[in-house]
Design a protein that fits this description.
There is one protein chain. The strands form three sheets. Strands 4-3-12-7-8 form a five-stranded mixed β-sheet. The chain has five helices and twelve strands. The structure holds ligand MTE and molybdenum atom (MO).
Length: 250
Amino acid sequence: MPYKEEYISEKQLKKKTIISFSVFIIMIAFAIFGWKWLHNQPKVNGELKPLRTVLNYNESFFSNFLSNNHLVKTFPLGAAAHMVRVNGSDGLSEDFDAAKWKLKVAKAPGDTLLISIDEIKALPKTEIVFDFKCIEGWSQVTHWGGVKFSEFAQKYNLTSQTQLNYAGLITPDKGYYVGIDMPSIMHPQTLLCYEMNGKPLPMNQGFPLRLIIPVKYGIKHLKRIGSIFFSNQRPPDYWYENGYDYYAGL
Ligand SMILES: Nc1nc2c(c(=O)[nH]1)N[C@H]1C(S)=C(S)[C@@H](COP(=O)(O)O)O[C@H]1N2
Ligand SMILES: [Mo]
């Protein structure tokens, strides 16, 4: 087919020029009026309302879809190891008196709850089978049972405490301690755990109560919780002080 050149008349050219110039002017006008409109909007929390709306939307999108609605992979019961690896015994002194143990929860200065293991066992039980990962490079699918920290917090009216940025956990002898960001301890898979493979925790795995926090590496799964407190500042953290990542998330 021979190449066919298209000619546009002078008149058509003029028309096209006028149309594209008009579109250009209209777009500039929208930009100017849009900018003025935006700057005449009221401010909310230090930011113009429409921008704050977008920021709030982003925040809720990411916190909903990337943290507490994001669940760690779980496994069927049959996948759980029977011989569960034991690692780390800091804070698990031999002279521990289990009969005297009660969980201490510091609500405020001078206001500490003392909670027995039977009271904790009376709360709804959740079981989880997940791949427990140690920062040293091993992992093992294991089975744990306890109460969700979030349900425990609700039951014991810790609403204002859980508005703070961190929770700190310490062994009864203060030999091991961790700091956890609030979204992670309130995560629906985080447990105050009293059972392993359907039986009470062995002594060397934190009897009577330990933390199971599947969104974190093993270093944060403190064995034998003595006390819990809440703070806006980062609580002291045993492995952070020894050069590891504070967040230790997976
Ligand atoms: N009290 C206490 N908790 C601890 C530790 C520890 O040394 N002391 N070690 C941590 C580490 S590094 C890991 S990997 C896990 C191991 O849990 P396990 O012994 O039940 O396998 O416990 C964590 N919790
Ligand atoms: Mo670990």
